[in-house]
Amino acid sequence: MRSTVVDTAEFPVSERPGAWAGAMAMAQVPQRVTSLERGTFGARIEMMPLDAGQISVLSSYASVTAQRTPRHVRQSDPEMYRVVLVTGGELGIEQCRQRSLLRRGEMGFGESSQPIDIYAGDTPGRHLVFQFPKKLLRLSREQFTRLCGLSLPWTQGVGRLFGQFVAGLAEEYAQCTPQDATRLEATAVDLLSAVLEHHLDRDATFGGPAVSAASSGQQVLFLRISAFIAEHLSDPGLGPEAIAAAHHLSLRYLHRIFQDHGTTPRAFIRQQRLDRCRRDLADPALRHLTIHTIAARWGYPQPDGFSRAFRTATGTSPSDYRHQALLHTPRARS
After folding, report:
1. What separation in angstroms does the CA of 264 have from each of 183, 222, 251?
2. Orientation of helix 265-281 relative to helix 214-231, angle to 10°
3. Minimal CB count within 10 Å: which of 36, 57, 222, 228?
4. What are the tens digits of pLDDT across the range 62-120?
């Protein structure tokens, strides 16, 4: 069987968001994807249809948020369950008031009938996605919903049986016939049912959750806040108060979250803004933009304030930094 591949590296930068939106429309469960790094978005997806479901392999996926909003749900609900197996990087998932940060070797769960937020960190990741109709799973909808936004290991224990099967199916997909795909999809769902029933049984036996959520919930919240900051860096008024209000947090709790990451909200915002200013100042394609224009687009409307912040962080002025960065570009030598 033949898969469908969409790689944004094959498109001009300006066309990549549109190409990826088209890929998401083919991915059975539509969602809105936003790149947090303006002009640098890159991702690749290989979609492998089965019988009624699909396996997808996503790679080179970083600094991205994906949202399935209530509007998406109202417009189209294919009644699908989704299992995400992370093989590289990190992925934050928030659904049904549950948050989880998935790392390599962990799998998370979601469904198409509820809004979901997904956050990919700044380290390029890779993950497998298995989607299938809800009616195929032996578990009740209530049982599966308990798992949404939570995580389980797929590289050890009974989870390994399912994880290895799905990974192997993705690797050998080209050798499969349509009849194989139908049988293998049923096998994958049966294995998943066995894994989930095992963990739900253990949950009932020991009287506590067999899945991890609380330990990673704050990590997902940090990713969510980081995504919010990245989307609003151009707003000079962005600060702890605005962030706390947008996420319904107290200022004290917001500062505690950033303290656990060795920084403060204001320092984090300043670092993100200056990182983007340095990148744009060093970009030959943006040499036509004035320093003030670049500073303003990242939340520094006052030239003097930007120059002071930039010199404090780098030890040099924005103009000197730009001159040195562009000195050895082809145009500078001509």
Report:
1. 53, 12, 11
2. 50
3. 228
4. 677 788 888 888 888 889 999 999 998 888 888 877 777 888 999 999 888 888 888 88
End-to-end distance of the chain based on CA atoms, in angstroms?
Answer: 52
124, two tokens: 């390029």
Name the segment(s) of the chain with CATH classification 1.10.10.60: 232-333
Highest mean pLDDT among 47-51, 60-64, 282-286, 329-333: 47-51
User: CATH number of 232-333: 1.10.10.60, 1.10.630.10, 1.20.120.1200, 3.20.20.70?
Assistant: 1.10.10.60
Tokens 């992370």 sit at which residue?
86
Token duo for residue 166? 């799905």
Kindly report the pTM of this predicted structure: 0.65
H-type alpha helices, 172-264: 178-206, 214-231, 240-246, 251-259
Q: Cα dihedral angle (311, 314, 316, 317), rounded to 10 degrees?
A: -50
- Closest by CA to 158, choosing from 203, 204, 193, 208, is 193
- What lies within 8 Å, CB to CB, of 297 at 6+ separation is 234, 280
pLDDT value for 215:
45
pLDDT, tens digit, for every residue of 196-224? 888 887 665 545 444 444 445 676 788 77
Report d(CA 28, CA 113) in Å as an integer.
Answer: 13
